[in-house]
């Protein structure tokens, strides 16, 4: 067939159809040729038979659709004993307990921050006796002491149990952890320096606390009168040393000292001298129960809390509203302080008024 | 010399053979523009019989065209001892000594380059923006060897479990598991990671994208036992501190945080283009998930409109039954008013929620905006519409209410469709909606704004404690329920009847290569 320019206008229908048919068959032939080339090349290069599989492999991976088993044909709930290795501490942990372990391991839990606080403080003061105390506390923070996974259970006996019943529950982004590092700057030691306190204050303190001065830190013990760490002898000696020979009597023996010329020490003044353990205030979602248990376990720390709005948080709303808000605002740091205050009265401590610590929280916010 | 080549090409590969070959490809084989096509049609005829079909070949050693079917080119080869000829239709090189088409690596390289160049010149490339012609993967010599030594294959067919795997609950981590399941079944993301496209630039080993890549390897490994995502949890907690802590979290929050961390860690993947510019990030996360939300504030006095466009990864929708009033607008219903406790005439649909989301909202007198037109504080209306739709759209139904008076979960059933058309909610459709008409999409051939559902996350339980599960779509039309470590087959009915907390839709327009 010769190549020539043709005009289609003057042609009859049959001729047009014949032409169209020719073009069509040429196209089909070319397409088939293309496919042949593809196959030819694949065979010659050696990859034509690559995606063939054997029957066995195919059967292996078939989806199972029966009640009681999953798609692999396995029965449910047989995965209780899986273990994994913690990337942080390289210990082998049960998989279903990994999250609580990791929380403590990374220092994100409530107790972890307090323990870390103490470690920082003790390393600052280079004291050994303080760290001894903390080590005892640390031993209590074991993974196995975490209770069962059942939701809604409240475990008072276990100080380390995860919080269960709270007001704002389905999501609990711990914004507090953003606040944590900054608050660390503002504390901290777990004792009282007697040098800076006046006699009235000392007397007041010594009526309620153990007061034995640690050799290493030179600070007074803030535990109760019956603190197991120190003996009554030591307590008597401290009182003699600090308040004079007439003050050798412990409050138990009922002797009260008369002071003239001194005003009753202002509670506020005491608070300004005392250091506080800010860490337990930081996590806003502490429940009353866990705070109580903390308190009982570690009476050496004087807990100061701010009277915040008591659990009401608006971070939830902020998050829900903003389609585009990716920055989570810092938590207000408020916590259920009422409980702590109530407990403190049980411990025969002076009722704490709103402490100046509130101003620090304001700065942070 | 490749195994598919032959030694006879060596006679050809002398002097300036590469350039000559290129010219042949450009002029006579791959015709890009109209002119080259015309030229090819006119000049490529058999020198012996004048035919232009019959599998025309050109001699590589001299200027001669001959048809293959009539053996004219064979005669030429024998007479002149020119052993190589090229097929003008597909560019294959024929060796007359071997009497077969041969595939020489160097020559094929040139052929590919020329083909690519010609492809780009074609008109439809310029208009539709398709850059490259798709070429299938071919194994290298080494890969071929490996494949030949290991004949057992895992082939993903329609009835295959590969790609599905359970996830162990690490202690209240069902919120993480459900999002991970949704992400691993996002087709584009899966393709990205399975083709090893992530190049890590992070010095430490704490790149979340690498971990994600590893996760995909685990999912496609064929293992049946559930995967333990402890490393993923550790990395997420390290990088998104606000999520850390052993208690129940919100899946939606986790999704946003995870996308954010992945986006930040993806810096190395965008070929160095504007890596740190938030407006122009071209990492895979942004390419897939980021859309643009247009917010128009119209001043009631001067009718000047102030427009801002914000990026978004998901769309959070209010539901009826919350304390804020809902305003349904289903076409056909006679505008029955729904208060917080009443029941609408039909079940609320996702489209109803979207309509509410994009309705013009009158900002009250207490929220006057400073208008730049009037230079005073005036009342205004605000309207949200979609400026740019992401490839994967995530809808989040706000079931957890935290108003000042109550905190509860809204369990109103919201029906969502398998196919969703977002055209009425686009910024470009605003005009027609403002006029009070709700137009049905006329152009059904235009697939640009059509989405198909591929993942649904559900929450069972209460505000205080609950459990997340996911339905995901695999193999085009099969649905599976992922409940931590247990994966079971589900029906479409199960999926559509479920409550829905977050669902992800995939853009059904496939961009062909």
UniProtKB/TrEMBL annotation, chain A:
Entries under InterPro entries matching the protein: SAGA_su_Sgf11, SCA7_dom, SGF11
Protein's name in the database: Ataxin-7-like protein 3
Compartments where found: Nucleus
Chain positions of all zinc fingers (SGF11-type): 84-105
Gene Ontology CC terms: DUBm complex; SAGA complex
Biased composition (Acidic residues): 132-141
Keyword Zinc-finger: yes
GO biological process: chromatin organization; regulation of transcription by RNA polymerase II
Annotated spans, Disordered: 116-176, 277-365
Top-level division of the source organism's lineage: Eukaryota
This protein's UniProt keywords: Activator, Chromatin regulator, Metal-binding, Nucleus, Transcription, Transcription regulation, Zinc, Zinc-finger
All residue ranges annotated as the SCA7 domain in the record: 197-264
Species per Swiss-Prot/TrEMBL record: Cyprinus carpio carpio
Record field: compositional bias (Low complexity): 116-125, 279-293
Gene3D superfamilies tied to this protein: 6.10.140.1270, Classic Zinc Finger
Similarity-based family: Belongs to the SGF11 family.
Molecular-function annotations in GO: transcription coactivator activity; zinc ion binding
Summary of subunit composition and partner proteins: Component of some SAGA transcription coactivator-HAT complexes. Within the SAGA complex, participates to a subcomplex of SAGA called the DUB module (deubiquitination module).
UniProt free text on domains: The C-terminal SGF11-type zinc-finger domain forms part of the 'catalytic lobe' of the SAGA deubiquitination module.
Function: Component of the transcription regulatory histone acetylation (HAT) complex SAGA, a multiprotein complex that activates transcription by remodeling chromatin and mediating histone acetylation and deubiquitination. Within the SAGA complex, participates in a subcomplex that specifically deubiquitinates histone H2B. The SAGA complex is recruited to specific gene promoters by activators, where it is required for transcription.
Residue ranges, compositional bias (Basic and acidic residues): 311-327
From TrEMBL, chain B:
Stretches assigned to the UBP-type domain: 4-121
InterPro entries: Papain-like_cys_pep_sf, Peptidase_C19_UCH, Ub_carboxyl-term_hydrolase, USP, USP_CS, Znf_RING/FYVE/PHD, Znf_UBP
Cell compartment(s), UniProt: Nucleus
Domain USP stretches: 165-508
Protein name: Ubiquitin carboxyl-terminal hydrolase
Any Gene Ontology CC annotation: nucleus
Pfam families in the cross-refs: UCH (PF00443), zf-UBP (PF02148)
Residues spanning the membrane: none
Superkingdom: Eukaryota
Protein keywords: Hydrolase, Metal-binding, Nucleus, Protease, Thiol protease, Transcription, Transcription regulation, Ubl conjugation pathway, Zinc, Zinc-finger
Gene3D superfamilies per the UniProt record, alphabetical: Cysteine proteinases, Zinc/RING finger domain, C3HC4 (zinc finger)
EC numbers for this chain: 3.4.19.12
GO BP field: protein deubiquitination; proteolysis
Catalytic activity: Thiol-dependent hydrolysis of ester, thioester, amide, peptide and isopeptide bonds formed by the C-terminal Gly of ubiquitin (a 76-residue protein attached to proteins as an intracellular targeting signal)
Source species of the chain: Cyprinus carpio carpio
Enzyme class: hydrolase
Family according to the record: Belongs to the peptidase C19 family. UBP8 subfamily.
GO MF terms, alphabetically ordered: cysteine-type deubiquitinase activity; zinc ion binding
